[in-house]
Design a protein that fits this description.
The complex is a heterotrimer. Chain A is an all-alpha fold. Helix content of chain A is 75%, strand content 0%. In chain C, β16 and β17 form a beta hairpin. The chains are: A mainly alpha, B alpha/beta, C alpha+beta.
Chain lengths: 314, 412, 362
């Protein structure tokens, strides 16, 4: 029996075949479109619209009761550099970004490596994860009392040193950022550690064993095998924490509630303060636009790097 | 203008989630929680007079209240009544057109002998009154009589040098001379403005209209004096969030504050005129004439609400009556200036007498006088100094304040 | 190169005893294959030699050195993993050079050995590629190259061919064997595939449930299986096992048939003792196909099913209560259930003790 397929494939047959494939494809995806639609509408309504509104607002003069209808060009952006608070907030935000990336990662990775092969790993994981499920404002309130002049920290120091110590951790410009970052790390450690544990678990055992056989010491294995293979996860964690560092707000808002320099503790706080406390809506929007642009730029860059790194180890 | 409308609507949608007033019930918004009993009594009577009910709703702290009110006003959602400030704060508000002109009520009250023309000026913008007085207060130094006794101070000081000498005595007797609170988002301006005022009253006025810089000699001198006082340990811990705690618990011997505060002290168990008395804050040197800060808080009435229900005029009249004044006096020991009313307590009476005798130059508070847009930023710089009272921080605070101030006036 | 000596090696995981006391002498330069079904412990033994598993009990020596507690890197071994275990983020070049680099071997020396391995394995064109850009066979050769450049005393292979397709597997098998001869290397090679074991090994170690079932050359293991397990495991299709008993004289009785065996080949117990008769499929010869065995017994059976393999055919037929498999050379088409006459080659049958399952071969 000999079959020649080409004879059957007339243009009409091909056309009919294509039509049928398209119909089936539509039938298969239309449900998907239906499910996506609400999300698309929500995002447009509650994310994109406010963002566009915010950008427009940043070019107006809307401040307290005045000037709702006047465009101000780039005046709000120029003001960022005329008044001292923006650059202070920017500096503190930079500290936040660096601190929010390095410390959770370093401590989280250390813990992840330690916890990886021990019994009761789950218990420890839950323990470290616990702060994450608390609202940041609740965490802030707890730590406010840890750092209070007669709080847990100072009492401990007093107890050890034997003399009364009542340093105001949350009242000094030198210590407040660091103190709140410590709280942030405490809260973020769990999720960072769990993500890193997942990343570690995803590293195949074989290359690690191969490296052992190849003569690598524990440190060399970490440096040459585990770290490069963990890098995509590390970068994901970094992206999350960079965004968190840039937009840090609630912890500062609660913990620095009685610090007069509160507004300059981060750009997000400054933005909120200018808009909601000071009534400088347009100027606050300009701060928001700059902050948003920075977060998007840095995150996008990191995402590109992450994708490349992930591809390289595939 | 469509942009205005669009933005207003969008702004509202995004920002205004705090409860809006019910249509049938009128509301009075206030940031003065501790005065609620008095305000409620006044508004109950006022509501009865107009045949409506008025709820009292407070939003605190002050900076949040201001933001809330701005949003409400921007969204055309003005409460029928709300407490406000006089001076520049009131001008800014009146410029938006939401406040009702209360000339008719004031005319009646003056004719009736309840108020004077001078008092009308306290709540007027360009000659027209836009508020009912809720509080008229003199800013004086409260002192703990027991502390003065223990420190061997026979009579309150009348000059700056005496004040400083007394402070030393108090310190030696184990007291912190001055209560220096930072709370509520506004208190840091108290000592800053007092020290500028005490050195140069004209500079004090000039600070608020853009003619005097915040890093000029008058301010430099104020920071120097302030810093010296901190260096000598004259002030309480700025970290305390309960503003009167150190005064009522006997830690601090003196507290510079408006005399509306006497009610709070009384509530905390100190008997006015017995446990605490007052004196006028002396100028920094004898060549500088004595001055006193007068604070007047108005209750503003919504123009729209008044137009919608002209009966509310009766409510306003009730709020200006001697009965209303007496309610405030008895419930919260606040004096609203009604000439027929008795002073709520011995201290307020004493202050009135003191001011009448000394005839100091009366000045509007810095808070009310300064442009509202830069108020918060400036207070923060002052607060920063209170937490770190060093010459370096003084220099930074001055530079920051002047940058904000110059930027504001340049954009006018 | 070096010898590897295992003495009474035991491995336990919690309550589970994986290796139950293994003794093994691997001579210098020999190719030893550990073979057995999954779970028999062959990989565990290899990993213990590699230093990837601790040794619960016993002594492991490489050369003269007791290495029980030495880390992998000090044992002078190289290992090729089933998954190749290449470093995914490194180029072929770096994969080959990694071990040397971290051991501080001079650059020129690394270069020399790497070039040598690359040439030998035909990897030179791919040196800058990453593993994900290579085919399975190429990856396999990189893995072997990585083991080679370290110039180890012992090569360890953990089922290195199982991820390759059949054709490549045959090809690589030959290459590995050639390489081993060329290098004169000591190799320990783990597989579950008895064909691989037969073709590669100088010595086969058959493992069963954590114990050594038999050690021997491929021929010994195939021709003289020491017990039922080895007999069943080696050879494909498996040896047919038929219940039987000793008859009068050198004869095994099974399914009513009396199969004569060569005198002196077995230590036969008394007549009537039940035994297990083992016959490989190629030793059940259908009449007319292949040489008719001289010593043997005929029977006629219906062919239930025939599996056509091209050059031969596997016939499934009932022999007593047992379904047996016979191998038909030069196959021809059969009718369903067609009766055929078969002859069991008595000279090649195996007899096992029914109790201890050991072979009765002399």
């Amino acid at each position: 029996m000999l079959v020649t397929a080409s004879a059957l494939l007339s243009p009409e047959v091909l056309k009919e075949a294509r039509r049928r494939e398209r119909r089936v494809a539509w039938q298969q995806t239309r449900i998907a479109w239906l499910f996506i639609a609400p999300a698309v509408i929500m995002v447009t309504l509650f994310l994109l619209t406010p963002v566009v509104f915010n950008v427009i607002l940043s070019f107006t003069k809307w401040q307290k009761f005045t000037g709702l209808d006047q465009f101000a060009g780039f005046n709000n952006y120029a003001r960022l550099f005329r008044v001292p608070y923006f650059s202070e907030a920017l500096g503190n935000t930079a500290i936040w970004v660096v601190g929010a990336v390095i410390f959770p990662l370093a401590v989280g990775l250390g813990l992840a490596l330690l916890l990886r092969n021990i019994p009761f790993q789950e218990t420890f994981k839950s323990l470290f994860f616990l702060p994450r499920v608390l609202a940041p404002t609740a965490v802030g309130a707890i730590w406010y009392y840890v750092y209070a002049p007669r709080g847990v920290l100072n009492s401990t120091i007093s107890g050890i040193s034997g003399s009364q110590f009542d340093f105001g951790w949350l009242y000094s410009p030198e210590t407040i950022t660091g103190s709140v970052i410590v709280t942030f790390v405490w809260q973020t450690l769990g999720i960072t550690m769990v993500l890193l544990l997942l990343g570690l678990a995803a590293i195949p055992r074989d290359p690690v064993e191969a490296a052992r056989v190849d003569g690598a010491s524990g440190l060399q294995i970490f440096r040459h095998i585990i770290w490069p293979l963990l890098l995509p996860t590390v970068l994901v964690v970094t992206i999350l924490n960079v965004a968190a560092g840039f937009t840090t707000f609630d912890l500062l808002w609660v913990m620095a509630s009685s610090f007069p320099g509160k507004r300059t503790l981060s750009l997000a706080v400054y933005m909120y303060y200018e808009s909601f406390s000071n009534g400088a809506w347009a100027y606050g929007s300009a701060v928001a636009v700059v902050l948003g642009a920075m977060v998007i730029t840095v995150s996008a860059l990191l995402a590109v790097v992450q994708a490349r790194v992930a591809r390289n180890i595939r | 203008m469509s942009l205005q409308k669009t933005m207003t609507m969008a702004g509202l949608a995004a920002l205004l989630s705090v409860g809006a007033a019910q249509a049938q019930d009128l509301t009075l918004y206030s940031d003065k929680t501790e005065w609620n009993p008095g305000i409620t009594a006044v508004m109950d009577a006022a509501g009865k007079a107009a045949g409506v009910t008025v709820k009292v709703q407070d939003v605190t702290p002050t900076d949040k209240y201001q933001a809330f009110m701005q949003t409400s006003i921007a969204g055309n959602n003005v409460p029928a009544f709300f407490t406000w400030w006089n001076g520049n704060q009131l001008s800014d508000l009146v410029a938006t057109g939401v406040a009702a002109d209360l000339s008719a009520n004031w005319d009646a009250a003056i004719a009736n002998g309840d108020y004077s023309e001078a008092q009308r000026e306290l709540v007027s913008v360009e000659g027209k009154p836009y508020g009912v007085l809720l509080n008229v207060a003199n800013w004086v130094v409260f002192y703990n009589t027991k502390a003065f006794e223990k420190a061997g101070i026979a009579a309150p000081p009348t000059t700056w040098d005496e004040l400083m000498a007394d402070a030393d005595k108090l310190k030696a007797a184990g007291y912190v001379p001055f209560n220096g609170p930072t709370s509520g988002g506004w208190m840091p301006f108290i000592w800053f403005s007092q020290l500028v005022l005490g050195g140069d009253p004209d500079a004090f006025v000039g600070l608020t209209d853009g003619t005097v810089p915040y890093d000029g000699p008058a301010v430099q001198n104020a920071f120097k004096v302030w810093g010296d006082m901190y260096a000598k340990g004259y002030f309480t811990d700025p970290r305390e969030q309960d503003d009167q705690k150190f005064f009522v618990d006997g830690t601090a011997a003196m507290y510079l504050i408006g005399d509306w505060h006497s009610g709070s002290f009384a509530e905390a168990g100190m008997k006015p005129g017995v446990d605490f008395k007052t004196f006028l804050m002396p100028s920094l040197s004898p060549d500088v004439p004595q001055s006193v800060i007068v604070e007047a808080s108005p209750i503003v009435v919504s123009k729209a609400a008044l137009e919608a229900n002209p009966e509310l005029g009766k409510a306003v009249q009730s709020m200006m009556s001697v009965e209303a004044s007496n309610e405030l006096g008895s419930k919260i020991q606040v004096y609203n200036g009604n000439l027929k009313a008795a002073a709520p307590n011995a201290t307020i009476q004493a202050n009135k007498d003191m001011v009448a005798a000394a005839k100091p130059r009366a000045l509007v508070r810095w808070w009310e006088a300064v442009p509202s847009q830069i108020q918060g930023d400036l207070v923060a710089a002052m607060g920063a100094f209170m937490f770190d009272p060093t010459p370096e921080q003084a220099a930074k605070s001055m530079a920051d304040m002047q940058a904000i101030n110059a930027d504001y006036w340049a954009s006018k | 190169m070096a010898t590897v000596t295992l003495r009474d090696i035991v491995k336990i995981y919690g309550e589970f005893v994986a290796i139950k006391g293994v003794d093994l002498d691997i001579e210098d330069g020999t190719f030893v294959v550990l073979v057995g079904p999954s779970g028999c412990g062959k990989s565990t033994i290899l990993r213990m030699i590699a230093g990837l598993e601790t040794i619960s009990h016993g002594e492991l020596r490489i050369g003269d050195k007791l290495v029980n507690d030495l880390p992998s890197r000090d044992r002078g071994i190289s290992m090729v993993f089933q998954s190749y275990a290449l470093y995914p983020h490194m180029s072929v070049k770096d994969n080959l050079g990694f071990g040397l680099r971290i051991s501080g071997v001079p650059k020129t020396e690394i270069e020399r050995r790497r070039a040598e391995a690359a040439t030998m394995l035909g990897l030179s064109p791919y040196m800058d590629r990453r593993p994900s850009q290579l085919s399975g066979g190429q990856r396999q050769r990189v893995a072997i190259g990585r083991a080679m450049v370290r110039e180890p005393q012992v090569f360890l292979f953990d089922e290195p061919l199982s991820n390759l397709d059949a054709k490549l597997r045959n090809q690589t098998r030959i290459e590995i064997k050639k390489l081993q001869r060329q290098l004169g290397a000591t190799v320990v090679f783990v597989t579950h595939d008895q064909v691989e074991a037969m073709t590669l090994a100088d010595r086969i170690v058959v493992l069963d449930d954590g114990r050594v079932a038999q050690i021997g050359t491929p021929l010994e293991v195939f021709e003289r299986p020491a017990n039922l397990f080895v007999a069943g495991f080696m050879g494909s299709p498996s040896m047919n096992f038929i219940a039987g008993e000793i008859g009068a004289g050198p004869v095994i009785k099974a399914a009513g048939l009396e199969i004569p065996v060569p005198p002196g080949r077995f230590n036969l117990p008394a007549a009537g003792t039940p035994v297990v008769l083992g016959v490989r499929p190629e030793d059940i010869v259908p009449e007319g196909h292949g040489t008719r065995p001289e010593l043997g017994a005929d029977f006629i059976a219906a062919v239930n099913f025939a599996e056509m393999l091209g050059n031969e055919s596997l016939l499934f037929a009932d022999f007593g209560d047992t379904e047996i498999v016979a191998r038909m050379q030069h196959p021809r088409a059969l009718e369903p259930n067609q009766n055929l006459k078969f002859r069991i080659d008595g000279a090649r049958v195996h007899v096992f003790d029914k109790q201890n399952q050991n072979s009765l071969l002399r």
